[in-house]
Specification:
The protein has 4 helices and 4 strands, in the order βαββαβαα. The protein has about 180 residues and is an alpha+beta fold. The model has no long low-confidence stretch (mean pLDDT about 80).
Amino acid sequence: MSNERIRTYEGMFLFPQSATANLQEAADHVKGILERCGATISSFQKWDDRRLAYEVQGNKRGVYFLAYFTAPTSALAEIERRCNLSEELLRSMVTSAEHIPSEIIEANEGQEDLAAEIKIRSEKKSDNASKSDSKISKKSEEKTAKATETETEEVAEVIEEAPETTKNAPETTEEVSTEA
């Protein structure tokens, strides 16, 4: 049995604003890093979408995730290494949370809220997709109707012009003799 000390930590993880398109993937990424390093997540929540004080890797806005977790002290270096190597994360910061009462940590549990937000965003995406599909079909129907109207008008003009050319054509009647 190891006498390795297990401590409570608070981790703040910053993703680019583009992560709002797939919050579940971003949350799973953070959880995966922590779990691979032997951490046990006590509380996890999407903290906020904010404008950054300065550009970070070309991003002016970011999405923060806040996690409270317990982990062996030796795992902290591996967690920071994996966060620094991650191409999805912009920044991360892990600090000791030994001074924070467990009631506050439990009060910050936001996985249900995150799941609800993910569900709402996916419903909005599907609604927007169906609206855009209906807009596209309406536009194509309008284009088809306009094309049909244009073709009908052109045919009508041709028909109207046809009798006029016949009326204005000079009448030539030549008698052809069939006698030889």
